[in-house]
Amino acid sequence: MTFSPQLEARFAKLLESYPAGRQRAAMIPMLLYAQDEIGSVTDELVEEVAQRVGVTPLQVNEVVSYYSMLHREARGKYHVQVCTNISCLLHDADQLLEHTCQKLGIENHGVTPDGQFSIEEVECMGACSWAPAIQVNYDYHHFVTPEKLDRLLDGLRKKQ
Amino acid sequence: MLYNEPSPLETRVLSRRFGMAHSESIETYLATEGYQAFLKASKMTPDEIISEMKASNLRGRGGAGFPAGMKWSFVPRTSPKPKYIVVNADEGEPGTCKDRVLMENDPHQLIEGVLIAGLAVDAHAGWIYIRGEYRYLIDIMDRAIAEAHERGWLGKNIQGTGFDFDLYTHTGAGSYECGEESALLESLEGKRGVPRIRPPFPAVAGAFQCPTVLNNVETFCAAPAILLNGGAAFAALGIPKAGGTKLTCLTGHINKPGVYELRLGFPVKQMIEEVGGGMRNGKKLKAFIPGGSSCPVLTAAECEGATMDYDSMAQRKSMLGSGGVVIMDEDTCMVKACLRLMKFYAHESCGWCIPCREGTAWLTKIMTRFHSGGGSPQDIGLLGDIAKNMLGRTFCPLGDAAALPMISIVEKFRGEFEDHLNGKPCPYEHSNRMVTA
Ligand SMILES: Cc1cc2nc3c(=O)[nH]c(=O)nc-3n(C[C@H](O)[C@H](O)[C@H](O)COP(=O)(O)O)c2cc1C
Ligand code: FES
User: Fold this and answer.
1) Are B112 and B224 in contact, with CB atoms under 8 Å apart?
2) Which residues is A136 bridged to in the sheet?
């Protein structure tokens, strides 16, 4: 597989970041960083990472299935993650999730038909004091209200 | 970036650079005594460093509260194997968002803390295991690590001391269990995050089976202040058995939620009323979680006279935990809050130990039935029984972390469970909050 030069540089650095003979340690970072570039963990990516860190594809698959951020299916260009754990729940995060679903016309874990947006209800994301919080891809948004969310999503829709 | 105004009641030691211009840069750090603690420690023996750490009464800030100096002393320094430092920046405990603030605002303080640990146990490499969602913090830490290399504060022969140290960031990929130390080490090695059987503890066989110091971000961040001003000075900020300050995340129904650095032993009442600006909308306090969702819940009455420290919380059969304070007002439906927590633990159980895997799933099923009005009186007892049967029967404490809040909520808020019986609508529905299941 060919990746961007930046990602290749990151891979090279990763492979030097662990003790000799322990390159398997680079597997999870490689998978996540590559997924960010190509959109999902494809069979091809599994083979590629397995070969680069010196394990079997099965050993990679077993890891992929464990971690909630690694996914085999493509998600929306903007993956909207709504935390509904306790501190956010106390600030009506369940209603915010419902609102997000209505706004985008999809259910939790769904992807819009144009592939622009997807929604995921997630666990605590470390933004509890600024609840309710969401992440769009890796960007945090704090003290989110339905109005703020509408503005944010409308803005992203225009940007595409 | 800071997300809340500081409070005048804070004791700002670890957070003293927060709010300064470019607080994350090495220039700011060096201009404010940065890396001086490392230089001082480099002239001390490992035993002297460890005894300073012990004198500070610093207990681990990740949740379990194990004395940090003692943990460092367990590393067999004469072992022929390399020794490693691992920073737990997985920060997954619901209610907790303080390691994020520490890394974002003062990444060099963490690097210096790691270097001090390296000197103390003769380690020359380390990893910061950062949860995958904190991608921007990986960038911040990578930048700080690069700056430190450029200025000779990492790498070979640091500042002519003869001490070498390399530090790397390592990303998680979405797993609460990977915050548990042994699962974290598995994950660091490129495996599924399932716990290891202990002993051996990480101090003896940790990362890549080598002796390892593994601590929380905040624990390492305390080391520079301890070495610079002396362990006794740090200890004096707290109370006799628990030294220093704790970054405390106020969350929930409070006027000024935020992360505040408070001395250990800070009164709970004053924390809510003065630091947090009181209960939102003038409501009454119903329930209080002292330090992350894995702690037993306290009632408002139990908060009377309580202070934020290990002993005061232990006397109330709870824990100081991670610093994630959750404040729930009188309109909160405890059944719903409990259901949400059980869903969390069921989702995050790694599935390795049967009592945890099955127990968290059953508790979630029963709680779901209960909250939707389909519970039976026997269910109330069953919830407690299942939870008690999980306690102490798993390789890692995730099972306990689910069972303890469950047991405390059924015991202390039994009436609310009874209110949900016989298909009655949730009695808190009128509040327009906590409505849907
Ligand atoms: C399920 C589970 C999750 C945990 N998550 C974290 C975490 O996110 N961050 C953390 O520092 N400690 C976490 N811990 C505690 C660690 O196992 C370990 O005690 C801690 O990192 C040691 O550092 P300390 O002594 O400095 O607190 C968790 C423990 C359990 C059982
Ligand atoms: S509970 Fe939502 S970010 Fe922590």
Assistant:
1) yes
2) A80, A139
Question: Chain B within 8 Å of A100 (Cβ-Cβ)?
Answer: no
pTM: 0.97
For residue B424, the tally of other CB atoms under 10 A from its CB is 11
pLDDT of B436 strictly over 80: no
Q: How far is B197 from chain A (nearest CA, A)?
A: 19
- Collapsing DSSP to helix, strand or coil, B172 comes out as coil
Q: Measure Cα distances from B143 to B39, B86, B149 in Å.
A: 22, 19, 10
Closest CB from A19, A68, A87 relative to B208: A19
Nearest CA to ligand 1 atom 7: B179
Residue B372: pLDDT band with limits 50, 70, 90: confident
Give span(s): CATH 1.10.10.1590, chain A. Answer: 5-66
A15 at B interface, C-beta within 8 A? no
Inter-chain contacts counted by CB atoms under 8 A, chains A and B: 155
- What pLDDT is recorded for position B374? 86
pLDDT at B310 over 50: yes
Find the mean pLDDT for residues B5-26.
Answer: 97
Name the CATH superfamily for A5-66: NADH-quinone oxidoreductase subunit E (1.10.10.1590)
Summarize pLDDT for B229-263 with one digit per residue, the tens: 999 999 999 998 899 999 999 999 999 999 999 99
Which of A24, A123, A124 comes nearest B190 by C-beta?
A24
- Name the one residue in this structure whose structure tokens are 């100081």: B320
Closest-CA residue of A relative to B347 is: A123
Locate B151 and state its tokens: 């200025």
Residue in A128, A137, A140, A141 to test binding to B, most B beta-carbons within 10 Å: A128
Tell me yes or no: is domain A78-159 CATH 3.40.30.10. Answer: yes
Q: Where in chain A is the domain with CATH 3.40.30.10?
A: 78-159
